[in-house]
Design brief:
The complex is a heterodimer of chains A (184) and B (72).
Chain A (H helix, E strand, L loop, with lengths): L1 H25 L13 H34 L1 H28 L7 H32 L9 H27 L7
Chain B lengths: L2 E6 L1 H7 L5 H8 L3 H8 L7 H10 L4 H4 E6 L1
Helix pairs in contact in B: 2-3
Classes of the chains: A mainly alpha (184), B alpha+beta (72).
Chain lengths: 184, 72
């Protein structure tokens, strides 16, 4: 039984690694897209990747040091998390204001909007993977207890929200670096 | 069904119109300079409205700026 679960976990891990590898591979600028200056929305995508990584890693560090219950009960931990989240949103909004001011007359055009719409699929995949990981992990860990501690609800919400924003930023950056279909 | 691609003469028309810069054209049609660059590289097919706006800037019909090329 244990061997089957370990095998399943290894397979899941390998598939996740493959998916991450494919994402990273898609981030490279393809030959035809090299030498094109970065657009305002792409700059915002990179800022989003940085901010969501920073806030997400901060949340993960707090949970590792405090534990899920500790994070839920300790007010100072929650305050640190809120400070991280607010500073992340502040950095993102300020970066967008600066990018807009330094851009040409048109900041976002039809091509940017198409890439933004396409980035939703990456966001959906990240959100779905996050929910699957939480559901499988919590079910396995708390199956015997028959109940899941309330503390995990907040973590599930925040990690999915931050993961979704990370996925959206990743989708934007990928959209500019992939070859755009030229078929009529 | 044959595969088609949309070719364009934007780069040539820009130079015929007083060496108009990509940024000037972008400002006049309401898009970013990066979109003009990918259009000239034929890595992006514009919407009909953008195609019409570009053609109007050059005082040409859309089919004088863009053409359908059969590939294979």
């Amino acid at each position: 039984m244990n061997a089957a679960w370990i095998g399943l976990a290894l397979l899941g891990g390998a598939l996740a690694l493959l998916a991450v590898g494919r994402f990273v591979w898609n981030l490279r600028p393809q030959r035809e897209m090299r030498g094109i200056p970065i657009t305002p929305l792409e700059k915002l995508g990179w800022v989003g990747l940085g901010v969501t990584s920073f806030v997400g890693l901060g949340l993960a560090a707090l949970v590792v040091f405090e534990g899920a219950a500790g994070f839920h009960e300790n007010q100072s931990s929650r305050l640190i998390f809120w400070a991280l989240l607010m500073s992340g949103i502040g950095v993102w909004a300020s970066a967008w204001a600066v990018i807009k001011r330094r851009s040409g007359e048109t900041v976002v055009d039809e091509r940017d909007r198409a890439i933004l719409a396409g980035s939703l699929s990456v966001e959906s995949v990240v959100v779905l993977l996050s929910l699957v990981a939480w559901t499988v992990t919590l079910t396995e860990v708390y199956w015997e207890a028959g109940a899941i501690p309330l503390a995990y609800l907040q973590l599930l919400f925040w990690s999915t929200l931050i993961g979704g924003a990370f996925g959206r930023s990743l989708g934007i950056v990928m959209g500019y670096r992939r070859e755009i279909p030229v078929d009529a | 069904m044959p595969k088609d691609r949309i070719a364009n003469h934007i780069r040539r028309l820009r130079f015929e119109h007083g060496e108009m810069t990509q940024q000037d054209l972008a400002n006049r049609v309401g898009c970013t300079r990066q979109t003009i660059i990918v259009l000239e590289k034929e890595r992006y097919v514009p919407s009909l409205s953008l195609a019409f706006r570009i053609a109007r800037v050059f005082g040409r019909a859309v089919e004088d700026v863009f053409e359908l090329v059969e590939v294979g």
